[in-house]
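Model it.
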Amino acid sequence: MNIYIAFWRVVIVGSELCSKLSMGGIDEVDAKLLECLKSNGRLSIRELSKVVGRSPSVVYSRLKRLEKMGVIRGYTALINYQLLGYEVHALTLLQVEGEHITDVEKLLAREPNVRAVFDITGEYDVAIITVFSSVSDLDAFIKKMLKVPYIKRSVTNLVLRVVKDEPHIDVSISRSTKTR
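Modeled.
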């Protein structure tokens, strides 16, 4: 079996970045480094230094600082799961007994086919995004999930077509200051 890896990317915490940008903790060079790494997380320090116009030692120091600040959480591969047979995407909304929302979120976050868990407002308390290789696997997951006594109700929607599924947004300095 061949495993196809789309790109190497950097995992960046969006809300943390915005707050650090507004506090002045990140400048245009840092933002440029982040933009470069988002599109190609395999760039070497030397290649990054050429792009941002700083010495390799400065780039290294800045990356280490961004990692320490928690802006860069890690470096990972973006895998095309569809090529590996995971073609069933689902969005599930859950109503959970109020005092157990956090417990249910932690339980769901440990499930291997759960890509994301969101604590949300509105009629439902939790939203999860899952990916499975078959509808029967999704069905088994839903039945397992509904055995959790604190889940009162669920609504699962199958994704017919993925239009956009990108882990990154534009974090440039100019964009973040326009929204303040």
